[in-house]
User: Fold this.
Amino acid sequence: MATIRDIAEHASVSTATVSRILNNDPTLSVSEDTRKRVIEIVNELNYKPLRKKSGKADKPIETFNIGLIMLNDETIDPYFQSIRLGVENTCNQYSFNIASTFMVGKSNITAESLSGLDGLIVMGDVDIKDLKEIYYENNNIVAVDYLPQDLNVDIVISDFEGATHQVLEHLIGLGHTDIAYLGGRGMVYGVNSNITLEKEDTRKSSFEKIMKEKGLYNPAKVFEADWGPSSGYSLTKQLVESGQMPSAIVVGSDPMALGVLRALHEEGVKVPEEVSVFSFDDIEAAAYMNPRLSTVKVHGDEMGKTAVKLLYDRLKGRTLPLKVTLPTELVLRDSVSGKKQ
Assistant:
């Protein structure tokens, strides 16, 4: 088993320096390169420090300090709130203490602010490779609702590809062949570099792939903008103004569908009599829209719970990265009906 002396020899520093780095001593003055080199050697040698235990001597309780990094505004899309609540409600079962919560673009996320955290749960399209530039102490990272290029972290996603296939099969089975897609642009956000990269959203790419396979794809009826009700509203206005209304619309998220239904109502287009609308997420408001929204139920709370379980396994010694894809289900309500002849 590796010791602090072994690490010190490999890093060419004193044992005291190693100890102070591992204990996140704020009074220690060393270069970031030295700190990073020590942490890398700690990981290479698989050094396992003795963790302080709390509680009674015969029933020690091991507590881990973790951080949450969130990207999306929950007031715009409650789907991400369900993920966060799933995380928070499960942490106590695994003796997790959420020591820090960060919002990309609003919080100051630095190597110093992440230092000392035993692991991270990252929700949304956050560049994991970029994050690792400032969080290099370990690979105890769980990416939720995002499939990163770096596959050395744990991943929790929903089966949007399978869900999109189910939605289209349902609509086509009802006689719809002229189907439009309205969704948000896929973007990946850096926390260290502040660089934003484009990515292909799974719902959009799956829609295009399936419609092409069936010979029904029309690129003029695929629209993208920001996620949210206002974009759903403006994209629907564009669709109506094009004069080529489809018989069905697949919408990338329920909040966007709010804007879609509002725009259709203003234009005098009846749902589902003239146009069927099918969405994703199944937020609470979906059941109270007029008409009630047919949507794909995504189990956000289970995604959060699963992320905590995966992180716990990592902290207990698992090194093999895992990807968990949770199933979805169709929720059929009033916004979809058979195509009128």
Observations:
- The mean pLDDT is 90.
- The chain has eleven helices and 14 strands.
